[in-house]
């Protein structure tokens, strides 16, 4: 998800019908430049070299989103005509071993190529957190390129979010905790013992109540697509 | 070739190499773009319309969505619809955004 403004100019995007390493290439209607949607950068045309500002978003299930944002609106679906259906046409592709239609340039088999990862880019350096690792370690206190990070993963809904775990100059470290009568994921920080709602990053009890961790723009992706665009990407492994 | 010229060519070489393969830390190469469909064969959404969450009865609890919240404005885009359109051009909390899938 990106801010559509580049150098103060508002762009609108269409689907070019082209792919780069199996990933969507967009074009902007204003300059006809071609953009990688995975990287958010223009590859050719007058905008070549420009980058869109990534925005934080959440890839989750409807029930989880509605619980976190009861006032949310939802995009109307096409329920009539040619495109009618509320089913995802790619459902069988997600489950298959197919890696797109172009042979990957950089195939890295440290994990299954079709596995989902949460990808993060900081200072032009990439790191991926695989769902298989996060499902066994749902709270990760990590450091990447000098930035202390918190990665949380709700296994039930396969929702992952990445936060900066630094608040007002102080680095916090988090552990999972249970709240009576609550099924969703909560955290406690070791420094102040405040209680946090994991997926929103909101402190709900304790000295830091009312504070919010800064979420970072992360990209859900298949591993093969991520590593084909970021061949030097780090890959988070299970900590012993 | 003078040392100055030599350095100049070296600099151009570095810039070219950096421009195509080091773009934003990613391996993006214009010559590896392939065309698989006509332009706009998959129609991006330019004027999205929305419903209140409470009215989303056609949605199931387990449907995958991409959600965004900017300045108190929260919106969800179902993956089923994103897969059909791939791009939604929207404005959320006053910010023009592109949701891409």
Notes on the protein architecture:
The complex is a heterodimer of chains A (240) and B (101). Chain A is mostly beta strands. Chain A is 10% helix and 39% strand. Chain A is built from 4 helices and 23 strands. The two termini of chain A are 34 Å apart. By secondary structure, chain B is an alpha+beta fold. The interface between A and B is large, with 75 and 66 residues.
Brief summary of the model shown:
The complex is a heterodimer of chains A (240) and B (101). Chain A is mainly beta and 240 residues long.
The overall pLDDT of chain B, averaged over residues, is 83
Helix content of chain A: under 10%
Distance between the termini of chain A: 34 Å
Structural class of chain B: alpha+beta
Query: If you compute it from the alpha carbons, what radius of gyration of chain B comes out, rounded to the nearest whole angstrom?
Result: 22 Å
Strand content of chain B: 25-35%
Q: Flag low-confidence runs of chain A.
A: none
Q: For the residues shown, what is the average pLDDT of chain A?
A: 91
Largest two-chain interface: A-B, 75 and 66 residues
Major sheet: arrangement of strands of chain B = 3-4
Helix content of chain B: 25-40%
The outline of chain A comes out as globular
SSE arrangement of chain B, N to C: HEEEEHEE
Structural class of chain A: mainly beta
The main pleated sheet of chain A reads as: 4 strands, antiparallel
Tell how many strands the DSSP assignment of chain A holds.
Answer: 23
Instruction: Tell me the number of strands of chain B.
Output: 6
Instruction: Report the span from N to C terminus of chain B.
Output: 51 Å
């Amino acid at each position: 998800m990106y801010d559509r403004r580049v150098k103060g100019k508002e762009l609108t995007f269409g689907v070019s019908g082209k792919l780069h390493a199996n990933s969507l290439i967009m074009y902007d209607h204003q300059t006809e430049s071609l953009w990688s949607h995975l990287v958010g950068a223009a590859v050719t045309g007058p905008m070549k070299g420009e980058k869109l500002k990534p925005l934080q978003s959440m890839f989750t299930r409807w029930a989880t989103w509605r619980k976190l944002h009861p006032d949310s609106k939802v995009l109307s679906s096409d329920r009539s005509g040619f495109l009618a259906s509320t089913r995802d046409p790619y459902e069988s592709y997600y489950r298959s071993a197919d890696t797109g239609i172009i042979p990957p340039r950089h195939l890295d088999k440290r994990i299954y190529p079709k596995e989902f990862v949460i990808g993060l880019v900081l200072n032009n350096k990439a790191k991926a957190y695989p769902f298989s690792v996060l499902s066994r370690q749902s709270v990760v206190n990590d450091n990447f390129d000098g930035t202390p990070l918190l990665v949380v993963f709700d296994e039930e809904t396969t929702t992952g979010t990445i936060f900066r775990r630094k608040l007002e100059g102080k680095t916090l470290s988090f552990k999972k905790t249970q709240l009576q009568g609550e099924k969703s994921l909560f955290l406690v920080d070791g420094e102040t013992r405040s209680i946090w709602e994991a997926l929103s990053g909101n402190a709900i009890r304790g000295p830091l109540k009312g504070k919010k961790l800064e979420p970072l723009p992360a990209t859900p992706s298949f591993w093969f697509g991520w590593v084909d665009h970021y061949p030097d990407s780090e890959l988070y492994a299970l900590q012993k | 070739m003078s040392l100055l010229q030599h350095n100049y060519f070296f600099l151009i070489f570095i810039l070219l190499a950096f421009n195509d393969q080091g773009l934003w830390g990613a391996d993006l190469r214009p010559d590896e773009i392939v065309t698989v469909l006509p332009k706009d064969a998959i129609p991006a959404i330019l004027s999205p319309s929305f419903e209140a969450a409470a009215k989303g009865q056609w949605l199931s609890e387990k449907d995958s969505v991409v959600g965004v919240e900017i300045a108190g404005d929260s919106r969800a885009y179902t993956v089923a619809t994103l897969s059909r359109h791939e791009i939604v051009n929207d404005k959320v909390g006053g910010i023009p955004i592109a949701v891409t899938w």
